[in-house]
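During the first year of the project, the team set up a workflow for recording each protein of interest as an amino acid sequence followed immediately by a discrete structure-token representation. This format lets reviewers and collaborators read both layers of information side by side without switching files. As required by the reporting guidelines, we include two representative entries from the current panel. The first entry is reproduced here exactly as it appears in our internal archive.
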Amino acid sequence: MAARTSKKWLHGCLALALFVASILLPPAVSNSAGENLLGNPGFEAGDVSWEKWGSPVVTTAEKHGGTKSLQVKRNTGGASASVAVQEGKTYRVGLWVKFAGTGVTSAAIDLDAFGSQQTKQYLYFSGSTQWEYKQLLYTPAPGVQYIRFSFWNSTSKDYYIDDALIRENVDIERPSTPGTWTAEHEPDSLKLTWAGSTDDMAVESYQLSYKKTEDSGWNTLSVPHQETVTSYTYTLQNLDPFSVYAIMLRSRDTAGNTSGAVMGMEATPGVNLLTNGGFETASISPWTETGTVQTTTYGTYAGQYAARLPGNSAVRSAEISVDGQDSYLVSYWTRSAAVPPEAITVSVSVYHENSDEIVHPLITNAAAVWARSEGQLSTVSNGEYMQLTAKNQTGTDQFLDQVYIGKLPELPEDLAPGAPAGFTVNRADGVSADLEWLAATGPFGVKNYSITFKKAADTEWSSITVPYVPGQSLYAYKLEGLSPESLYEVKVTAVSEGTAVSAASSLELTTGKMFPVNPGASEEAAALLDRLYATVGNAVYTGQHNYYEAPSLWYDTAAELTGYYPAIWGSDFAYYTGGDFSALRQGMIDEAINKGHTGSIITLTYHEPRPMDSATAGWESVTGDVTAAQMTEIVTPGTALYNQWAAQVDEVAEYLAQLRDEGIPVLWRPYHEMNAEFFWWGARPELFRQLWDNMYDRFTHLHGLDNLIWVWSPNAESSWAYDSAPYYPGHDAVDVLAMDIYNNDYRDTYYNKLVQLSGGRPIAIGENGELPDMDMLMEKQPRYAYFMTWSQYLTDKNSLSAIQAIYSNPRALHNGETGNGPYVPPPADSYLIDDFEQYGSSNSSLRAKWQRNVSGNLATVTLDTYHLNSGTYGLKLDYTVGNPGYAGLYRSMGKEWPGMEAISFWLQPDGSNRQLAVQFHETNGEVWEASIPVQGTTPVLVSIPFTEFLRPGWSTGGNGVIDLGSIKEFAFYIAQGSGTQGSGTLYIDDVKAIKLPVEEE
């Protein structure tokens, strides 16, 4: 909340109220490395942040990602928003294009770069009727400050653009997943072969992880990537025979990004069941032979001997006992003397009790050098024994070595862990449930548990991840964010390394009623909390703050403007501003009682002066400093400063007790914006929490204030407000969590932080300047239960149409209608756009309002006290016209000009014969513009009738008719006109929308 600059509040006729949308720029947003710097890159928010030249349209007929794209019709074009870039950095820029028909062979999208220097590069597209992506890496040259995409369709076909990208060139893309491996199995090793990965930057290595399925820890090794290699082989050695191994393979790029995992299980076989499989006895025995088969010492694969099988010969192994339905690995090495090589024929015969023989042929590699072949077979339960046969049916010698048959362990059927057992709910309150389950196991272990939940009547699920804890056998988790008195479906799954997911264990639970944190809270307080819970996600209570000196002024103003009484009336115990302090406070309490009895929800806050200051201390005390030692003394019972603090809050408690005695509950919001250095209670988390607890204890137990609903309200986090979480007193001392939001800064990050911290409790907008957009709240931030606009900011920072729009929205809840309908202001003779008096002597404040269009040449504004029409200040505009041929400045508005007929302003020209354009934008995006030549140097009063305003050729949308009911932007632009390129200076003052004088007949 800002300090009051005057004690005179608006009591006059509403027709004289100024609806000035004083839109301040939000703090600069720091983008994460690799984050897209373009707003609305995929047109999901329509054409917001995109210029349109001609009639390109956002469409759902085609889309690359999301649900929309921009259809660029023939002889139309546009441009993205300009993005600030830094010299020395490299940016990745790209977008997707698809043509609506064939026949186009080439098209270009421009990348404009500008600042004190202008350049252009191009993305070239082939005219494909399939989505095509092109990108380039751009490093700004000296003097380049901004870049943007621009496009003009001069081809014979429409095309679509989507998913534009401008981001700092840090590698955030994951490499592709490696190919699935093939394996060669030995009792003590596994030889794995896989296809390599690709990456937009560079693959660095392959991370190969393995473990026996019953082990908990993983062994991980790195295989270097080589640019010229497409297939990789690695042998895992020193493994245990007859064991099952879980294996994961990922690629990693040079930035540390990892690919998806290839997962699988492989088994090492047991001991060789064949006798003399390597022929190292120097004989064939106990193999039986057909023809002349001999051992040889020439060119063996391993050891001293191998078997030589001349043409039309064969060998058969000794019998190997078969035990049940088992799996076996068969492997052997062969080479061929034939040119070209021919394969030896190998098979395994399984014999059964009835002497039936089942032959299992094996596939053998044909090679002139030693080559390994392997196969797997399963026997049946009634098999007795098996034998391996190798036949040479070629006309040349074949060689056989290292023949192996070993039993394989059974592989698990599922890679995923088992479903978590024992899933139960031990306790549930109104917004949370204590869940419990047993640890799951699986061949790939468990990386985390995923809890998904939804109301039984809903279709969308929410999810939460619970980390795996080594050695923990029982898991307990408090599921928060639920709604009171609701039936929920809840599931838990175990997720392994490599993201294999178990079957789900499920349960249903019903939440209970939610009660205020004060166990002795009154029925009225409990009922108020119930109202807030019932509102969450469904509607929003409207609220209006009032200063205690005029405790109904702005509430009544909101009602008269909209035709609805705000649902929430708010005020402040505040600090001394003059007059009879006690009487003013009592007047505020009397108004609170009146409003409470007529149905309003009451909210009160307290800008408490420092305890060491006098009773007549003002704003300077509230915003004054206290040392850490003083703050410690304030929160420590028994100290002098604690006693002074207690005396202050005890006085406030007496007023709150009057509301208690009237049966009126209060949304009590003390010590707001504590996460900043605005107020003496701020910026010390631990001491703040103690201060809150002291007040809660004193008000609850000493004063018996059972009518309070405790509202905690930090400032929206920014460059001047810290992370709010450390200041949170906890669920046992807070009923409602709110956030104070100004400068139209309704970020999702603020909302999400509050939702997470609340654990399902109601959240609200504790203070606001600019009103939120109700459609945005419904779509993206639906859990806000109410907002409260701060006093005069209702009209200082919001247009009449914006005020009426939110109050008339179907989701807005009020305290009834006035019966008079919304306020319709009578026509005025003029509406002030700017007389440049409101900025004092601050050029920075002026420049925060009047922004340079960075797509054009330089334009600098300063306040001037010499060249002006009236008052103390006018506007000095220094500009340059070069390439791209114009310079401009604009200011955001929030205005209506009902009944006006022209734009008027005082101008001292510079004699340049250039062209000055006046431009304004309607809320619907329609743009209107009129121009005058800049001639002479004598000051003139310029008046341009609206009948002379036309739509620029690049402006689209709207209805082709000037709508003065909703103006969002006003601008001046200077172009070369009949002058030359170069610099100049204009002086401007008293910019207004006016009625034209009636001409006498």
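The second entry, processed by the same pipeline in the following quarter, appears below.
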Amino acid sequence: MSPRSRSARGRRAPASCAPWVRTRLRTAPGAAWALGLLVLLTAFLAAAFPRAVDRYEAEGLRHDIAVADPRLSVLELSAPQPDLQLDRTAREAAVRDAPLAAVYRQVLSGLPDVVRPDTAQSAYGFRTSEPIAAGETWLPRPYGIDPTLTYSTLPALRDHATLRAGTWPAVHGEVTTDGPGIEGAVTEETAKALRIKAGSVVSVPTQAGTPLTVRITGIVAPKRPEASYWSAQPLLRTPSLVPPPKDRTRFYWTAGVLLPPDAAPALLATAGQPEVFWRIAPDASRLAATDLPELRSSVASLEGGPGLVKLRAVAGSNAALRTDLDEILSGYDTLRTAIGPVVTVAAVGIGAVAAVVLLMTIGLLGARRRSELALLRSRGASLHGIAGRLLAETAVTAVPAAALGLLIAVLTVGEARLWPAVAAAAAVAVVVCAALPLRTALPHRRPQLHGARDDLMHARPSRPRTVAELTLLVLAVGAVVALRRRGTGGEGGSDLLVSAAPVLVGLIAALVLVRILPLPLRLASRSVARRRGAVGFLSLARAGRTSAGGTLPLLALLIALTTAAFGGSVLAGIGNARDDAAVRTTGADARIGGPGSSVALPDRLIREVEGAGGVREVARVQIEYGVPLPADGAGNARTKGATLVGVDPASYARLARATGLGAFPADRLKTSAPKGAGASDDRVLPVIASRSVAARLGDRPRDLSTAAGNFKVRVAGTVTRTPAVSDSDFLIVDAASLTRRQTTSLLVTGGSLDTKALRTAAHHAGKGVFVQLRSEARGAFVDTPMQRGAGAIYTAALAAGAGYALLAVLLSLLQTAPERTALLARLRTMGLTSRQGRRLLGLEAMPQALLAAVGGLFVGWATTALLAPGVDLLNLALSTGPGSGTLDTVPLRADPWSLTLPALGVVVLTAAVATVQAWWAGRRGPITELRSGDPR
């Protein structure tokens, strides 16, 4: 063999053709980048949703535990004092610091993994479970009753408090039950309330008769008074005035004294029923929502199950664990169960819109390559080969884009499970990679005739399509009925069919609108055909020749508009509910009241309030609580009294009408009976009553005995609520008819109230006069993490729905853009002006845009109205704030702005795109567009 032959064999043979994927990406880089960007955005949203839900649920769980009263959230293990049958030395040794600390460490190590302790705020010690009366004469006695003190040892006091006066309490030598005395400390609040100073001495009675001397050596200030170390037993931090068990008219002081840890044996001699305690503060910083079932099970086990048995093996057979953490977890679970299905409705809607837009994009890409694939098919290419090549070139773009979207979602939305986000992003990639080959290759199973018309005016739905549409109609009706009956918070949660109710309603509406669209087009075409000018006729003719498969753009717009309307109505409903609750809390823009219902406000205060800036009107109100009602017809007396509200009929009726709280005609309270102090007790006063009080009084006049006077009342009307009081049992009467008239509250209305002047006037009026503003009551409804997270998801749903709707409009116009451009070029050769070209393209695009806008407006309103009985926004709107209990339910109502703005946006965008396209086509010459052999 010659050297040339050997060198020729050694060289690689050149490839017969260029690689398909590289060639396609180089040929159409814009389409690849556009598809990749859309996949990235969709994958990001799909991956971010489960992570956002996980995050706000975890933050909600941590928030509920962190902000709960430490008395409820801590797990406190307690055991009685050592057995009295033990000798004194053994009993003293059992309560010293070292044995208690050893048990404390074993308790912490024996807790379930999900019950993580906050060791910095946990504590243990020995305390008197019953307060002990202190007889020192220098202690304050507001009602002549001796104050009581609770004595407790706490470890690491210096780490949790700052010494303000004196010295830290310490143990000198070994403390025993018969020792002469010990040292202690109190907080600043206790020292101020009980007049305790550094060096004060308190004698504690003992069972042996010799008092135990406790010398207060230090006054301390808690570093974190709200933390569990101090707030789990708040008496050690803050003294309190409490009434005796059987006497609620007198009060006495009760407080706590802090002892050093090794001073515990001295408490064995007291009669305060001493006990050992180990207090575990929960650490919720690493909890996730998925830990809830295990956490609830572990807490139940510690309270009365295998967990408690293990703790008793360490702390003693009589040890008991007390906590209300299970109630906190139950409340959190109730809120999550109520919020979750409502959020799922928004997620399903946005997911459906994204899926439709992806299918539209795939359809656009497939339509642009129909001729290319038909040529390959005519030259012997197999469907499998074509589909495989399409899958390869799609995967090269879609898979990295989906992975990048997943990465961005993981980086931006942290502290959540990874696998749901991975599954969501992978689902987006799989849908795109599978849909594009199938949608593009399957139409080439059989040879297709070029130029066959498939327009909207002549299309006739096939039987399979009719059956599919009827099936979807049945599913939509079933989903709506289920959601109306069961609600989003029904038993077992909300399944996917119920959550997809808005999507199914939008789908049915799209199918119906596509079927009825040819009718108005035919009617409009007939009327325009008889008029002069070709622009109107050509535009309607072009609109009628739109492909019969144009259901996807309309479906995307309708679902997007429906989801936007639903989400906007949810957000608006939350805001309206909080506004209503704030109004019911204050009754007006501002409320000014005194320290008690029987204390009259001074006239000077009333004049200053009426003259304050921004005040439009002041309604003077006299309120008397607990007015006894007469017995009913059967002689049954009512233990609960009603609230009497004396008002000026004219001003109060205007206030009730303005606030929407029980509007009534002012003349209903007018009476011809004598008024003032000399009026007879037999006079009959008309009253506006609540329904329960009206049912109690009946139709005839009834006697009432009140602090404002004795008189008869006759029900002149009923209302469910009234601005002056939040009670459900009330009577409204003309204040001028009362014998002893006074003003106890002022209800102020105005646009921009001078709150500083109102507070100054209230301050000068005396102690106890308060000013309550509606704006402050509204601001008190602070979003919890779960509410804030759900609101953020709905806001994102609105933004994503609007973005996908705009993208659907662009895709629908881009799909037929080459045909419209070529048509405009041909007509320009026939004398069509640029202005007429813009009108032609705009009018051609308007029918479907108007159909989508009007249909979306109607479908959004109908969907909200249909689903409203099954959606309660109470837990989303009100879980915090002073008026949380004023509303029993928060129904869903259609928000006009959420309905109209997206619909108008669709019309405006369609017109703008058509105008830009006409302008762009006008810049290019007709020769560029009208090339020989161009199928357009």
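For the second entry, the following points were noted during internal review. Residues 374 and 447 are 8 Å apart (CA to CA). The first strand starts at residue 75 and ends at 80. Both points are flagged for discussion at the upcoming steering committee meeting.
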